[in-house]
């Protein structure tokens, strides 16, 4: 009987610690940290992307250390990860249009390389059904790896491209809005 009680207590303890080490919004739970290439990134903030009255996705920004200043996040050449967990299905063309709009509104003087990389990013887009995710992970020296619906689709080179992608969330005119930006920067609870 004692081994079963010990196992039950261990299971309960693990369940409680898993619950304490996560953040939940709109039914989507994100871990407080993720490990990428042996490096731990912490959840900086998360928010709900809405379009009119539709809950589109929960987005989470992971950084090496919590940071609430967008300029500092952008200027740091460190690992970072953006996760979008979709609550509403979107089409390939909707995703491609959103990236194009995000680049135009937040990186108007993008270099030819960044523009080319965004065209590549747009070509990789696929329909994302409700319940699926898009994850973009930047590693210095490697670039931004794009994962859609659980499949890695490619890597975009350069920090400038990663900055332009991130600017769609935390730039001067983020597509999801100012409140979303504040939340992923951890400026509001």
Which features would summarize this protein structure in a list?
Chalcone isomerase, alpha+beta, single chain
Detailed description of the structure:
This protein is of the alpha+beta class. It has one domain (24-184): Chalcone isomerase (3-Layer(bba) Sandwich), CATH 3.50.70. Helices cover 38% and strands 32% of the residues. It contains six helices and nine strands. It has helices at 2-20, 70-75, 92-106, 112-124, 159-170, 178-184, and strands spanning 22-25, 28-31, 33-36, 39-51, 54-63, 80-86, 133-139, 143-148, 151-156.
Give a quick rundown of the structure:
Helix content is 38%, strand content 32%.
- How many distinct folded domains? 1
CATH topology name, in short, is: Chalcone isomerase
Structural class: alpha+beta
Query: What does the overall shape look like?
Result: globular
CATH top level is Alpha Beta
Under the CATH scheme, the architecture is 3-Layer(bba) Sandwich
**Mean residue pLDDT:** 90
Query: Helical content, roughly?
Result: 25-40%
Q: Radius of gyration from the CA trace?
A: 18 Å
């Amino acid at each position: 009987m004692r081994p079963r009680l010990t196992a039950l207590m261990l299971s309960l303890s693990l369940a409680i610690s898993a619950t304490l080490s996560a953040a939940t919004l709109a039914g989507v739970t994100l871990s407080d940290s993720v490990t990428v290439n042996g490096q731990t990134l912490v959840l900086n903030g998360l928010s709900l992307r809405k379009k009119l009255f539709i809950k589109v996705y929960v987005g989470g920004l992971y950084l090496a250390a919590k940071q609430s200043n967008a300029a500092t996040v952008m200027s740091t050449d460190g690992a970072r990860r953006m996760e979008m967990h979709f609550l509403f299905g979107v089409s390939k063309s909707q995703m491609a249009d959103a990236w194009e709009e995000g680049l135009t509104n937040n990186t108007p003087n993008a270099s030819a390389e960044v523009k080319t990389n965004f065209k590549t990013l747009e070509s990789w887009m696929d329909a994302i059904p409700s319940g699926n995710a898009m994850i973009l992970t930047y590693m210095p020296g490697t670039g931004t790896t794009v994962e859609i619906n659980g499949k890695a689709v490619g890597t975009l080179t350069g920090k400038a491209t990663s900055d332009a992608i991130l600017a769609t969330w935390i730039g001067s005119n983020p597509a999801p809005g100012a409140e979303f930006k504040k939340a992923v920067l951890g400026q509001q609870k």
